[in-house]
């Protein structure tokens, strides 16, 4: 009787579920996930509609990255239902453009910017070289993030901000319906961040964006709403009121709820209003 | 100096032994440079070493069983290929399954292969086996059929790399993303290990199983200090390996130096030189 898949908890009241809305691009009902005995996500329900820009925030260890991996079909939920574009996340993979943190990669790896972007076209490649069409798309995507002429530049020569933009171009080369970004402004200089925000702001008009971030500037310039993930989820609509911001961020601009360790996960997050 | 070259060229023309050694060395340089570059950027040099050392198990087993059961077709080369492929299967499985104990388990496979090889060779009936040529290599033992086998393996390896170049690079750079784009990172990891194993088998003849991984890794490591795209690293690494092989062969022929160790020594020398040159340039 307690099987969470047997009932469908209502979606968050802030979700646009009323009639007349387009179908949800991502639908998540009663989703739970645990690594062994430790429960990372507990009966999470939310939905994302087409064209929305949703910022995912929350403490470290609260389950943001796990949620991203579930959305990409890298992990399978322990319970509950998650659909992306009406399909299982695994089936919908090719429609999602994933942007990992550029910091994660070996900066000395001998690869050019264009070859990285071409990785977004791998599912169109059987063997041998990439087609002219794929190379054209990849070149256009580099242009779209303001890196025209960078095709042959080695990864090791690029600045942190440029590397991150190459990662975004790679995701765009997937011709995605959903762009999923993992802390795109982490470890990036504030002066460079402006360019990145500009890129994302122009993309926002033509695709659904899901972005894990700790960066309030990014939230306010890109986000339509905020999903706070801390083992459970809670949605906030934007603009966040001063009161809410104070509650969530305790006056700090870049947010790290790291004081809230896994062991204390029963403690109330300021945004767990339920 | 011109005498030196004239002598060597003369030897290549008149002595089949030297000709085969040179041909085998040049063809295998192509494979070593290309596969070595992939091994270096993927940072799995220690896996290549483990495969090289475990080959002794296959060599020992082939000598033992061919003598005990009178199987003339079971040559050390076949034993080496079988052992290399078996190591690929076990090491590949272990590295994907038990990531946190990876180095210990690879060390165990390395030791098990060598120990089994030495035991097999000890109990093999008939005259004692010349262990030295396996452990230190002997390019001068290359026969015509070895050169043909090297050509065939070389074509297979180069063909596979040419066909799957982009996918091999992608899984080396970002396994997770490649998997999201439908490229099985496991399959390509196994492909890379298999290519490494085949190269290592060929290399054992040149440099022996102790020094072979140096010849796989050092030229590519040297090349990666000057080139910033993978294909350029491959080209330079092939050049360095061919140079080390040829110069090593010529000098060792002229001055009667053991060939395998000398070729490896040249590879080490080029690597050391790259540090000096790079510093000067900077």
Instruction: Kindly report how far apart the N and C termini of chain B lie.
Output: 33 Å
Greatest chain-chain contact: A-B, 31 and 27 residues
Average pLDDT number of chain A? 77
What order do the helices and strands of chain A follow? EEEHEHEHHHEHEHEEH
Q: Unreliable segments of chain B (pLDDT under 50, ≥5 consecutive)? A: none
Q: Using the 3D structure, state the CATH architecture of chain B.
A: Orthogonal Bundle
Integer count of domains of chain B: 1
- Alpha-beta classification of chain B: mainly alpha
The CATH topology of chain B turns out to be: ABC transporter involved in vitamin B12 uptake, BtuC
Summarize this, please?
The complex is a heterodimer of chains A (274) and B (282). Chain A has helices at residues 64-71, 89-92, 113-118, 132-144, 160-172, 190-204, 216-222, 242-249, and strands at residues 24-35, 38-49, 53-57, 79-84, 96-99, 178-182, 208-212, 225-230, 232-237.
Task: Kindly describe this structure.
The complex is a heterodimer of chains A (274) and B (282). By secondary structure, chain A is of the alpha/beta class. Chain A contains eight helices and nine strands. Chain A has one domain (24-264): P-loop containing nucleotide triphosphate hydrolases (Rossmann fold, 3-Layer(aba) Sandwich), CATH 3.40.50. Helices cover 27% and strands 22% of the residues of chain A. Chain A has a six-stranded mixed β-sheet with strand order 5-6-7-3-8-9, sandwiched between helices. In chain A, strands 2-1-4 form a three-stranded antiparallel β-sheet. The radius of gyration of chain A is 19 Å and the shape is globular. Chain B has a single domain (18-274), classed as ABC transporter involved in vitamin B12 uptake, BtuC. The longest helix of chain B is centred in the C-terminal third of the chain and has 40 residues, at 185-224.
């Amino acid at each position: 009787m307690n099987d969470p898949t047997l009932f469908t908890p209502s979606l968050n009241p802030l979700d646009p579920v009323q009639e007349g809305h387009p179908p949800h691009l991502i639908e998540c009902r009663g989703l739970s996930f645990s690594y062994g005995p430790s429960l990372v996500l507990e009966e999470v329900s939310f939905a994302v509609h087409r064209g929305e820009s949703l910022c995912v925030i929350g403490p470290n260890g609260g389950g943001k990255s796990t949620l991203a991996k579930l959305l990409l079909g890298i992990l399978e939920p322990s319970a509950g239902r998650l659909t992306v574009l009406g399909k299982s996340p695994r089936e919908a993979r090719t429609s999602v453009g994933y942007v990992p943190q550029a910091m994660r990669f070996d900066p000395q790896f001998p690869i050019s910017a264009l070859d990285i972007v071409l990785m977004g076209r791998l599912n169109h490649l059987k063997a041998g070289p990439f087609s002219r069409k794929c190379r054209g798309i990849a070149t256009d995507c580099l242009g779209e993030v303001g890196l025209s002429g960078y095709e042959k530049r080695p990864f090791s020569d690029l600045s942190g901000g440029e590397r991150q933009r190459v990662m975004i171009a790679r995701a765009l080369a997937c011709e995605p319906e959903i762009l999923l970004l993992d802390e795109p402004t982490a470890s990036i200089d504030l002066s460079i961040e402006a360019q990145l925000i500009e890129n994302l702001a122009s993309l926002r008009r033509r695709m659904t964006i899901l972005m894990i971030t700790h960066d309030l500037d990014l939230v306010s310039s890109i986000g339509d709403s905020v999903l706070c993930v801390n083992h459970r989820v809670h949605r906030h609509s934007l603009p966040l009121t001063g009161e809410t911001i104070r509650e969530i961020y305790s006056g700090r601009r870049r947010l790290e709820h790291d004081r809230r360790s896994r062991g204390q996960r029963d403690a109330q997050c300021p945004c767990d209003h339920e | 100096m011109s005498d030196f070259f004239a002598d060597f060229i003369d030897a290549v023309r008149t002595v089949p032994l030297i000709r085969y050694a040179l041909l085998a060395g040049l063809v295998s340089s192509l494979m070593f440079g290309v596969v070595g570059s992939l091994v270096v950027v993927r940072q799995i040099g220690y896996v290549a070493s483990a495969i090289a050392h475990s080959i002794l198990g296959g060599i020992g087993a082939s000598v033992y069983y061919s003598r005990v059961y009178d199987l003339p077709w079971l040559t050390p080369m076949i034993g080496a290929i079988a052992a290399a492929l078996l190591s690929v299967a076990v090491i590949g499985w272990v590295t994907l399954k038990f990531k946190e104990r990876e180095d210990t388990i690879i060390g165990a496979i390395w030791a098990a292969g060598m120990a089994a090889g030495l035991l097999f060779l000890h109990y093999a009936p008939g005259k004692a086996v010349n262990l030295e040529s396996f452990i230190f290599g002997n390019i001068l033992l290359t026969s015509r059929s070895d050169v043909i086998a090297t050509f065939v393996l070389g074509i297979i390896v180069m063909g596979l790399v040419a066909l799957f170049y982009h996918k091999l690079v992608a899984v080396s750079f970002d396994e997770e993303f490649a998997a999201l784009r439908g490229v099985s990172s496991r399959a390509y990891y196994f492909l890379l290990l298999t290519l490494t194993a085949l190269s290592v088998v060929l290399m054992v003849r040149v440099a022996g199983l102790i020094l072979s991984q140096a010849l796989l890794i050092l030229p590519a490591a040297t090349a990666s200090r000057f080139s910033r795209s993978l294909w350029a690293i491959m080209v330079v690494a092939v050049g360095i390996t061919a140079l080390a092989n040829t110069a090593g062969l010529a000098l060792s022929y002229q001055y009667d130096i053991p060939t395998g160790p000398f070729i490896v020594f040249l590879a080490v020398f080029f690597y050391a030189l790259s540090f000096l040159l790079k510093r000067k340039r900077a």
